[in-house]
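Handout, page 2. Input:
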Amino acid sequence: MSEEKFDLPFQSPVVPELLNNDSKISFRCYPGISCFNACCKQADITLTPYDILRMKKHLGMSTTDILAKHTVPYQMDAQGMPGIKLRTQDDTPQCLFMVDEGCGIYESRPSACRYYPVGLLPLRRTGVNQDEHHYCIVQEDHCKGHDEDNKLTIDQYRKEQGVEEYDEMNREWYQIILKKRSAGPAVGKPPEMTFQLFFMASYDTDRFRRFVTSDSFKNTYTLDEATYKSFEDDDVALMKFGFQLMKQVFFGEMTIPTKEGAVEERIEKRKEVIELRRKAEIEQWKKKNDNYENMEK
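Output:
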């Protein structure tokens, strides 16, 4: 067990029992059970890129609007890797999509909701490049589904809940997070702009689309017209390209060809922007300091 690295929540003290697809559980949730909707009243749901795409299609909203209206940001690790959670009511942890009948977006509910009470544990063994998916059981006092006489394997439960599609769509994203965590100091803390790219490519697909179809991006990377055409109306293709770009930015996996000298030119321009920002901050600080000294006089 010491050779395994778990994708546990940041600062989590829990080391769960490791389960696999053949492990059996006893669980059933249905309208009429005494605890129905209780988990939705205590929601703490971490969202994945494919969760956002499914919500976008279901709600008919842009990803930018979904992020603003239905999510809150959080840090996935000590370095500030940005993640998002489902927004709840202001005064309670109740999910905003909860209705008397159950989930208001049930057909497009997030993967964490589909998995409950199973917890997904992507992991990578030390010295092994291939990631693995294992599981744990989440047991909370309010949940009576564990008392139901309905035994099935985790693999059967995953099929029943339609979560396999979500895992496949998110697999490369999980790989990026695992690789960054397992690399640790070897990668170092990414700059803020890299985190911004990660957030945009992971969650805000509509804004990412504008980014990759901009003249600046096209002047840097060499992609054919068919690829750019797919970005116009295929959110999944765009999401997967985002994963590819993040691997290149985070780990130097140069799978997206760049135009000769374009990267160096972008770095120089970025330096100029950073220097201008630095000077502006200094001037702003001086102005505030002068105002403070005048008030003291």
